[in-house]
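Request: Have a read of the protein record below and say how the chain folds.
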Amino acid sequence: MYKSLSRLCLTLAAAAILPALAAGQSTAPIKPGPPLKLSDLDRTTNACTDFYQFANGGWLASNPVPPAFSSWGSFTELTERNNLVLRDVLESAARAAKTTKDPNTKKLGTFYASCMDSAGAEAAGAKPLAGELARIAAINSRADLSAVITHLYAIGQSPIFGFGSDQDARNSSLVIVAANQGGLGLPNREYYTKTDARSETIRTAYVDHIAKTFQLLGDQAEAAKTKAGKVMALETALANASRTPVQLRDPIANYNPMPVTSLNEM
């Protein structure tokens, strides 16, 4: 859990870290590796017979997949090494945040320290979300729903559908507003529509998970179960209106330009 939280903080702070790196605030020296390590080769293999084994055999033999990873490679190793450098920048900034006069270091350090304060997060529970949950609970009309969706997009969420800027697929000189289907908690519509035993089991477990989430927010078990059922019904309706993974591979069918004013007619 804490490892995942740390990765999230690294991701969120990545853009802010660049000035710090440029200013040399990291205490971890970045030592470039050699362009070629002969020990990474398997020189017992004939390159003309199995070039992959020849080029990578030594590295593969000395770098088994770590238990925390499902796969491992030289680029994963590089990414993890870079993450350690980024973490050092963040932790150094967090230590200096209270005394530094540099505004970037102060903001970066304060942000990272608050993000990694797991004890504070546990104590706060769902309280920081109270305002947003109250806003959602107050929805009583389509106009209310539209206003809340707009608000959620403004604060960086993506409810109901995906929305953002994208390159026009038929005009490389244009960057346009792009909207695509979304709103599903499970990977795609097939998880909601298939009737085999495995799919039924997945859906049951998913509803239990949603109910548990409502309980963590303070609902009693029965109320949480009822709300979870409503969430599943809404997502199922969205799934039934969604295109299949195969249909989403059709660039022609998925290209539907229209003026912004037409959105109100949909």
